[in-house]
Design goal:
With about 180 residues, the chain is an all-alpha fold. Helix 2 packs parallel to helix 4.
Length: about 180
């Protein structure tokens, strides 16, 4: 199960990165096409949707690798036992919060599908298609947060803490800036 979840997070991060590459390609294509007088207004819609997709697909990967913002000022001054209790409390709150987000993101996307809502921009497609990245990304983040909660409840070190410690051991403090 561990290998499956780690691959899932890696794939979701890869999908997020692919959307960033697509944004780059679209922006370059739009710049070139404008020079030839080609109208490219609908590209703005795609770029906006791809920005959302890049963000939501990358969240689970970023969370698991310690790339989310954490306020460690208090945690650094606590004993290991106190730190573990706060970590569990934080992950419980995070799990409930992300579950709430995932529920409503998926309900919102499903409602858009049921009511056949169309995009308001220059590209008239069913809006549930771009919203799907929001729905799937929130589920992936929920799985990642729940995964961390289970790791910590079993007595393990959170993956995001281990990842940051590993970077620091290599002398990489770039994520702390």
């Amino acid at each position: 199960m561990r290998r499956f979840l780690d691959r899932l997070y890696l794939i979701s991060g890869g999908i997020g990165a692919a959307f960033i590459a697509l944004i780059c390609a679209l922006m370059i294509a739009q710049s070139v096409l404008r020079e030839f007088g080609v109208r490219t207004g609908a590209v703005n819609d795609l770029v906006a949707w791809f920005c959302a997709a890049a963000s939501f697909f990358a969240m689970a990967h970023a969370f698991k690798h310690g790339d989310f913002v954490r306020v460690t000022l208090l945690l650094e001054h606590l004993s290991a036992g106190q730190r573990r209790v706060l970590e569990i409390a934080s992950l419980c709150i995070g799990t409930v919060s992300v579950a709430y987000l995932a529920f409503w993101a998926n309900k919102f996307t499903y409602d858009s599908y049921v009511f056949n809502e169309m995009a308001q921009g220059l590209l008239p497609i069913p809006i549930w298609i771009p919203q799907l990245s929001f729905a799937l990304g929130s589920i992936l983040l929920l799985v990642a947060v729940l995964d961390e909660l289970i790791i910590v409840l079993r007595g393990g070190k959170p993956s995001y803490v281990a990842a940051v410690e590993e970077r620091h051991a290599r002398g990489d403090f770039s994520s702390d800036v």
